[in-house]
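#structure-requests
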Amino acid sequence: MNTPNKTIIRFEQAAEQSDGPIKRVVGFVAAKDIIKLLDEATLDANPRSAKANSVVSDIIESVTESPKIFQFKTKGILLGTSDFTELDRKRFELRFSDPAYEGLLDGGHNMLALGTYFLSQVMDEKDVKKLKLWEDMKAAWSVNRQAIQELRDQFTFKVPVELLLPSNPDDAETVTVFRQALIDICAARNNNAQLTTEAKANQKGFYEEIKKRLPQSISERVEWKTNEWESDATRPIKVKDIVALAWIPLTVLNEAGLLPNKTENGSPLNFTVIPQNIYRNKGELSLLFDKLMEHPSVSKQKNPPQYEMHSTLIGSAFEVLGRLPELYDQIYLNMGEAYNANGGRFGKINEIKQPRHGSPAPFTGEVGEYKVPDGYVLPILYGLKALMAVESGQLKWKADPSKFLARNLRALVGAYKMPMEMAGFDPQKIAKNENSYLFMVGEVEKALIKEGSVAKGGN
């Protein structure tokens, strides 16, 4: 009987190859033996979650129409683990001690298709059609597992399986190098350059401290893993959008000389981020974020390849970041009213849309009157950098940013009309111009000084 995160896989035919720290076993596994793997399979190690699409439909069709040659029509699945026992008769007992980076590395859509196919043999067709996500399939799998077991021997088609193992499981250094290699292999097999950056970062644990500091309602909407988010939202928040915002407080730390300036080997490091890159070069900022999080002054590997952040300074920047998505939406939802209060006609700007049923703000989903381009909002949000300061080794807000915006957004947008007009109201021209951001930092500083003067005058 299988125990959690443990299964036995049996190859009908197999070939072995070893090179360096990795041993590869490649062969065919009978579909009836894949059933056991589906009992334990998670997609934690796979950088993207499986979701029903045309690929899944095609795989199911191949199984149904040509089961005898199915093993030659699909790339199959990729498994990897550092904890295993090689048994007799081409059998391997696999223990997935850390599902975050061991287990099913690639072939999630194949596994979703196979699970759905097995379920289609014991469920009503209309119920099978409701299985859209990996989680849907797994829930139905638990309910129908016994019925599938009773049909087990009729599943005679074969599935190609590739199994990656450490070449010397008794050598600690070999196992460590093997584990670190799994993430790179996993990302490369999934064959998506952008996925490689954010997916690898998520698997290394770089986003864990951000997840803790975002409001739960927002964190649940973030697509931390491709095709997977916890909320019911149909349009998730992209990780790269959150990482880009992180560079607003991180820039304050960098300008104060508090981010690392040398690698562990003494090579120079530069974490300077020009403000317009938060709009136009989010992929580059994800790479830079990884470089920061890998630095030993920020994080340490607790269980390679995963990292654990220990820097309270960076943690304080993430606390500040935790407020930024809601502040973005506060600007998004109230910019139209603020613009109109300054004698403008926001709805008449070509780039502004007024959907009949309103427009949901990007992070909270709260519905507002106008659909506002990102290029209009970001420079104002960036201006709030002037409200951030380092005190006693921690990054903090000088004033409550939400209340500050409530008091000053009209004045800030009134000033912002000038760069908008100079750019011909083109949001891309505004957001790609460094001066737009620096101008708004100056306007926030003025508003903060003015509030301080008023407060002193009232004493």
